Amino acid sequence: MTSSIAAIAPNGDAGAQGTFCDDMWQRTADLMGAIHDHPFNTALGDGTLERDRFAFYIVQDGRYLEAFSKALATASTRAADPADAAFYAQSAHTALAAERMLHAGYIEEFGLGAEDAAGIATSPTCLAYASFLQATALTAPYPVLAAAVLPCFWIYQDVGTALLQKAGPEHPYQKWISTYSDPAFAASVEQAKSITDRLATTTDPATREAMGEAYCRAAAYEWMFWDSAWHRESWPTARWLS
Ligand SMILES: Cc1ncc(CN)c(N)n1
What we know:
This protein has one domain (18-230): Heme Oxygenase, Chain A, CATH 1.20.910.10. The longest helix has 28 residues, at 51-78. It has helices spanning 20-27, 29-37, 39-46, 51-78, 82-109, 114-118, 124-139, 142-164, 174-181, 183-202, 205-230. By secondary structure, the protein is mainly α. The chain contains 11 helices and no strands. Residues 61, 64-65, 95, 99, 152, 156, 222, 225 line the site of 5-(aminomethyl)-2-methylpyrimidin-4-amine (NSP).
């Protein structure tokens, strides 16, 4: 009989011993299925996603990426290993430089001016996800922060790669799909996974448990983010507050 939390699967079943990432992939298997099957992503994949929905997503995502980038920059300052620090610093830059450049292209293509974008309120889900990342960056142990940012890499690569199978060159969202199915992005996902796995094996059981909770919370927010874009989520209180 084992007494080590690290040797217990995150769902509480004794037995299955894998890396932290293997455990997380198993634990979120149903959620990943729901992400791939979400109408936003199936329509994104077959190119039928309405522009309004995608534009709403792009505006929200630009705001999310600012928070994500800050969380990564904080991870860089908190990393003890210089190679990890460089990885998170580089990723913080990429989130703002490359991903937001992708957004800028779509915003221009859709003829969305700065004023139009400013008129779209940050959705409750976008704010919740961004706030969760920033709170984790500022208050949680560094391994928990590494786990919290991992789904942002891994899930996007998984979705981008799956959509690549369906997308031809004339696909309206080809650039989005290419960004997240790019081998360079896959390499950064592998690095984020390997850092997180290493931290999970060297930390104490309670922190590893908290890493699992942070990973699953962020993965849940990923589903919620696409769902909120699909429904163009607004504040139920908007009628009283402008
Ligand atoms: C909500 C969200 N999550 C992740 C990613 C990929 N960095 C993104 N652009 N947006």
